[in-house]
């Protein structure tokens, strides 16, 4: 069995790692992969932004399944091309990935289906958006409609920031992604991600996880791709989890009834308001870094789950999970999320993995010709610890973090702290 994983971040390293534990012993390829996936799979130098390159590579190197990590290739139709070529794909076709590719499309689907979400209005012209803003109050959320590498959402705490965000979109900061702007009600509450496997009929939720988007402790500083994550999430009780699951099921049913055959992961980004969970956004893929804490706890063979998803047999699968806690701390390059240096030597990864329960997933790394591990991105490593409880998972993660270094390395010191506080208050 040969499986190709598309992508090269911490999420893909976690996917490759979970696939490598399969009883099917698949031969794994990762494109482009990173310094960590190289130890478990063969890194394939494919320019994944163009789906035709992937299909061309597979014609020369046949595989039994393609697993797509990032949203970009899904939105431009990689799964459609693979289907046309008769190659099973884990990941939705462009019509399903549009749920992530267009915030307006997602909002309209939620409105049609009565799915709880913030009130929103969409604009195709700057003047109309600014006129609407003149009648609103801060805080308020401004979103570029399309994919903007996680930078297209502004939570404006005053109206000047909201107006600036609208102008940035229409003045071309995000290219075509900013040609439509969605202005949305600000919602209060903790955020939580719930990812689910779905074959368009059956929906199997994974474990809730809480990401930390801001760069600095205490949720301060600029937004990032995610600085750390933990699971389980104590503020998610059984009723909240049932409500979130119901929302994902209704989303999949809504897509099905509207002719979208969605197979892969549906990611619900939720805010847990006083009135219950509401959807902030959907993603059409595994979360990054959520995957780095969720998949290590999956006991079910991921190869079986992925084939069942791609072949629409997910009703045959039951997921089972380790009852442990997991914490993942992102080690980032100096300057991230703004400009940063690359190609800096990293030390201590092997030593960090000697801490019990610790796995270091590589996000932005590469191996030099002499085997030296170098930084190669903004988020460099995801130091992930699994333990019987949250306090121990946090301790193990930070003990491992202390063994790693590279010039300029920075990280948050409070990942998992909110969970501990919630547990103390309970
Ligand atoms: N954790 C945020 C994302 O995957 O988009």
What would you note in describing this structure?
- The chain has 426 residues and is of the alpha+beta class.
- Among the domains are: 96 residues, Rossmann fold, CATH 3.40.50.20; 67 residues, Dna Ligase, domain 1 (2-Layer Sandwich), CATH 3.30.1490.
- It has 14 helices and 22 strands.
- It has a five-stranded parallel sheet. The chain has a five-stranded antiparallel sheet with strand order 12-15-18-22-19.
- Strand 10 and strand 11 form a beta hairpin.
- Helix 7 runs antiparallel to helix 8.
- 52% of the residues are buried.
- Bound molecules: glycine (GLY).
Number of DSSP E strands: 22
State the helicity in percent bands.
25-40%
Q: Order of strands across the biggest sheet? A: 3-2-1-4-5
Architecture per CATH nomenclature, i.e. the level-2 architecture of the domain at 2-97: 3-Layer(aba) Sandwich
Structural class: alpha+beta
Backbone shape: globular
Mean pLDDT: 97
Termini separation (Å)? 47 Å
CATH class of the domain at 2-97: Alpha Beta
**Main pleated sheet:** 5 strands, parallel
What percent of residues are in strands? 25-35%
Bound molecules: glycine
| Rg (CA only) | 21 Å
CATH topology of the domain at 2-97: Rossmann fold
User: Count of DSSP helices?
Assistant: 14
């Amino acid at each position: 069995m040969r499986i190709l994983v598309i992508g090269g971040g911490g999420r893909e390293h976690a996917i490759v790692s979970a696939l490598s534990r399969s009883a099917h012993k698949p031969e794994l390829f990762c494109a482009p992969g990173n310094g960590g996936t190289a130890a478990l799979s063969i890194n394939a130098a494919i320019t994944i932004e163009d789906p035709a390159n992937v299909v061309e590579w597979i014609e020369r190197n046949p595989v039994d399944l393609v697993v797509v990590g990032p949203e970009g290739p899904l939105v431009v139709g990689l799964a459609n091309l693979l289907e046309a070529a008769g190659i099973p794909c884990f990941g939705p076709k462009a019509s399903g990935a549009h749920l992530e590719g267009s915030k307006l499309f997602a909002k309209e689907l939620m409105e049609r289906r009565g799915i709880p979400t913030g009130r929103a209005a969409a604009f195709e012209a700057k003047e109309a958006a600014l006129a609407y803003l003149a009648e609103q109050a801060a805080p308020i959320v401004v979103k570029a409609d399309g994919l903007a590498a996680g930078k297209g959402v502004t939570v404006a705490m005053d109206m000047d920031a909201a107006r600036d965000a609208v102008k940035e979109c229409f003045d071309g900061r995000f290219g075509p992604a900013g040609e439509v702007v969605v202005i949305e009600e600000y919602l209060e509450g903790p955020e939580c991600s719930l990812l689910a496997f779905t074959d368009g009929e059956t929906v199997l939720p994974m474990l809730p996880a809480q990401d930390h988007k801001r760069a600095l402790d205490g949720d301060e500083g600029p937004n990032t791709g995610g600085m750390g994550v933990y699971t389980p999430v104590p503020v998610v009780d059984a009723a909240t989890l049932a409500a979130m699951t119901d929302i994902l099921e209704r989303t999949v049913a809504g897509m099905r009834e509207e002719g979208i055959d969605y197979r892969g992961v549906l990611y619900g980004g939720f805010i847990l308001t006083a009135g219950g969970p509401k959807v902030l956004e959907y993603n059409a893929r595994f979360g990054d870094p959520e995957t780095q804490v969720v998949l290590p706890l999956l006991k079910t063979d991921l190869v079986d789950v992925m084939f069942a998803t791609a072949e629409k047999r997910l009703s045959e699968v039951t997921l089972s999970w380790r009852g442990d806690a997991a914490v993942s701390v992102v080690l980032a390059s100096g300057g991230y999320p703004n400009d940063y240096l690359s190609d800096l030597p990293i030390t201590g990864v092997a030593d960090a993995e000697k801490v019990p329960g610790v796995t270091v997933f590589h996000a932005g790394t590469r191996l030099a010709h002499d085997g030296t591990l170098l930084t190669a991105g903004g988020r460099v490593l995801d130091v992930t610890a699994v333990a019987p409880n949250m306090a121990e998972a946090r301790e193990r993660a930070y003990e491992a973090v202390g063994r790693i270094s590279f010039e300029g390395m920075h990280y948050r010191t409070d990942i998992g702290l909110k969970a501990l506080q919630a547990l103390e208050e309970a």
